[in-house]
Amino acid sequence: MSKSKTSKSKTKTVKATPKAAIKKKVIAKKAAPKAAKAAVKKSAKPVTKKPVPKAKKAIHLPVKAKKPIAPAKKTTAGAKKPTVKKSAAPAKKSVLAAKKAPTKKVATKKLPVVVVKKTPIPTPAKGSKPAIKIAVKTAPPANKSLPAPKVVTAKKAAASAPALAKDEPVKVSTTLVVSSTGMPRIASLPSAPPPPPKASAKKPSSPQIVSEPIEPAKAPVISSEKASTVKSGALFYDSHMHTPLCKHAWGEPEEYCAQALKSGLKGVIFTCHCPMPDGYWPSVRMSESEFDTYVAVIQRAANAYKDKLDVGLGLESEYFPGYEKWIENLHKRAPFDYILGAVHWQAKEYLNKYETGTIENFRRTYFDQLAQSAETGLYDCLAHPDLVKNYHPDSWCFAIIKNSVIAALDRIAKTGVAMELNTSGLNKSYSEMNPGNEMLKMMAERKIPIVLGSDAHKPIRVGEHFITALNNLVEAGFENVSYFKKRQRIDVKISDVISSIKRATDANA
User: Fold this and answer.
1) What is the pLDDT of residue 180?
2) DSSP secondary structure letter of residue 31
3) Which domain holds residue 76?
4) CA pair distance 319, 503, nearest whole angstrom
5) Start-to-end CA span in the chain (Å)
6) Helices (DSSP H) in 212-290: which residue ranges?
7) How far is CA 384 from the centre of its chain?
8) Are 97 and 48 in contact (CB under 8 A)?
9) Which carries the bigger pLDDT value, residue 312 or residue 30?
């Protein structure tokens, strides 16, 4: 019995000693380096990602590591053993993480390598040194590609073109391209001064225009002719309409005449946009070469509606300071019944010259020039007098501009020139007739003659809103409304016009 006990005790001691020895050896040999590695790895990378699969792999591989760790807690109480445990486990995890991390880093490193390989692909044929030269030349070709066509389209001097391209390629190219495209409208946009030299270039062909001074303004003539009705009872005229020659109207003159009969009118006066020199706003008017065509098509319509409708020849004639003499000579080229003056703020040339300050100052300039146009004596009537309210219509306030309007109307009243009530204002961005009712009252107070026009650009709008317009005139204080024949004004009582339109429409129905 004693032998067995001793043997058991020996076995127990034998089992205990190797465990202790193993632990000591592990601690002695591995604790220090692993702890150092663990400390380095902990300092380098905090264990932020602890995926479950990594922990499981760390548990399955070092199975023996768990046995010495468990008794280590019981036998030893030093501070080194917990450090060994903490360092051992994270060391293995960090080793795995370190092994996997480089795989990701390698992937990231490979990506730029791929990009680098792609970049030299466009220019690998010439080698590395030429590739550098090509890379340096990649920017200049983009700039040199622009002057290349410019040299062809702008000027034939090939020797001077490269010098221009090196010095100022953009500035030279814009002016040259514009000049080569043959668009004088754009060429006149940069500034207002260019028109005078351009006019001087064309004036040699008509030296009389240069030498002749502008004739002094003449007092408007009131015709002794009394307005009379035709068989249908019609008495009045629509004094503002267009033709397709203005490039933004539709329908032949005969179609406008047919609609005038339906609207109960006695006659119409065509007032298409006049030609202008120097390519002034050419997209909305007839060219100078089409002027005779315009006169002919109006005469054609007059012949077609003879004894049915009186068809008159008129012109919506532009007012732009500096072109007064040209306009004066234009008015002498045909036997006009009516000249309607217009200040169009929409013209790019006008905007470039006068749109330099605030919105209200721009509008004040417009009304000042409206009065100037009347003072020239070139026009029988002034079209859509407050058209400028469609310039930034959301900010239009008549009260703000009222003093400027009063000053302009006082000047216009002294000339005796008529003004138009244009019904097409209801179709514009600021939906109100031109002018509005408040301005109409101011015109009536100054006894400025009033003419009615639809400004029709389509046949269907001839005579549009005339009854409403005539009622507005009565409310504003007008008693008479006018139209022109042979540049002489004929006045008609508004009450007679209203009744004549009703009779004529019933007769034509």
Assistant:
1) 33
2) I
3) 2-118
4) 38
5) 145
6) 253-262
7) 25
8) no
9) 312
* Cis, peptide link before residue 435, omega less than 30° from 0: yes
**Which pair of structure tokens corresponds to residue 110?**
């490979």
Judge if 112 and 239 occupy the same domain: no
CATH code of the domain in which 490 resides: 3.20.20.140
pLDDT tens for 59-70 read 444 444 444 444
Final residue belonging to a domain, choices 102, 118, 134: 118
What six digits make up the tokens of 200?
A: 């001087």
How high is the pLDDT of residue 230? 93
Residues belonging to the chain: 509
121-158 confidence digits (pLDDT tens): 444 444 444 443 333 333 344 443 334 433 333 334 33
Q: Output phi, psi for 338, to 5 deg.
A: -160, 135
Q: Answer yes or no: is 44 within a domain.
A: yes
Q: Which helix (H) or strand (E) holds 314?
A: strand 310-318
Question: What is the spatial distance between Cα 347 and Cα 283, in angstroms, rounded to a whole number?
Answer: 10
Question: How many domains, in total, are found in the chain?
Answer: 2
Last residue of a domain, one of 91, 118, 145: 118
Residue 478 lies in a domain: yes
pLDDT in tens, 337-391: 999 999 999 999 999 999 999 999 999 999 999 999 999 999 999 999 999 999 9
